[in-house]
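Example record

The entry below shows one chain as it appears in the dataset: sequence first, then structure tokens.
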Amino acid sequence: MSTQTNRLNELAHRISLLSDSMAERQTRFLADLIRIRSYTGQERPAVERTMEELRVIGCDDVWMDSAGNALGRIGRGPRVILYDAHLDTNEVADEREWLHPPLEPVVVGDTMFGLGASDCKGGVAAIVYGAAILRDLTGLPDLSGLWDRYSLVIMGATLEEDAEGFALRSLVERDGLRPDVVLLAEATDLTLRRGQRGRCEVRVRTEGRGAHASQPHLGESAILKMLPVIAALEDMNGHLPVDPIFGAGNQVVTLIEGPHTPNSVPSWCEVAVDRRLVPGETADSVLAGIRAVIEPLGATAHIPVQPVTTHTGLRLDGPSFYPGWLLDEADPLLDAGRATCAALWGQAPRVDIWKFSTDGAYSAGAAGIPTLGFGPEEERYVHSALDQVNLTKLHKAAAFYALFPLIYR
């Protein structure tokens, strides 16, 4: 075994021991985050709590950017590694469905239950304590000169549930912090993710002629005009672009709207279409395919602008289009992710893709920044009343995030 391999194994062992020693602090931090309700656009208390923890672990700089993200930096080097995990959660529809109150963290065995545990407050706790372990290692020879070359930025992100990547876009394009690589601490169950399908919303509209419902012959129902359009939209499934890794795209009509006048023939009707994208699809290509089918039926289509307001009051409105992405199998970022897992746990991890959308829609899909996913959470618990994270996996994820910068260099 080479000297370099021995040194790496010793470093991985030391990091694992530090992760174990910080486990209780990390668990308490996650519990604090779960107690804070942080629906999209209402994340400020969770952001402030995250900034507090970033100060406690010894970040060189801690700040809130214009979009209200919590940020901490270790190092002053020009090459930037960004760890991203979002603080906002989906809204609870019915608390009666939950085994435990959503905002009361409950530990059963080795599992913590609570809203956001799997999406993505467990990820926030993982990246913050990965940085904490690194800070404790700063005096080692293995880190000599590291922070002159690199900066590690920890991001407790906002807005992800409703507008994936909008807050990250603001950090890059408005505040001028462009990372060289991005790691997303979304749910992967300690495996790696190298891409995702994208998504977009398309609004399809038909126009009719209004009339009183007592004299329907004087009008033209936009709802009736919409019926063949909906059928045509559904029939497009099976004929959408296909990717050898992601499979076929799909689309679903998810909402239908019209005038709120129940005693009138509706003069307009609009449906929302949720379209799942494969890498390479663009807003123009999506609209062209849909318009070719629906315009002969008298309908129109557009991608709406999504209104987004941060908890700081900043408007970040943008098109409701979130492109897919795929990291190349030979990319050094993926190699480093594999090597990090192998050093810590003695075997290479499974590499897969996400079925859902993440902030990678901006970092990789729009900005072309190499992006990789790794987190302790499991996809099956995301957005469910069984929201949870395994605490042993949480602590292992912190070790991954501590070791990764020492391998990716």
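Notes for this example: The chain has two domains: 3-196+324-407, 198-306. Residues 3-196+324-407 form a domain with the Aminopeptidase fold (CATH 3.40.630.10).
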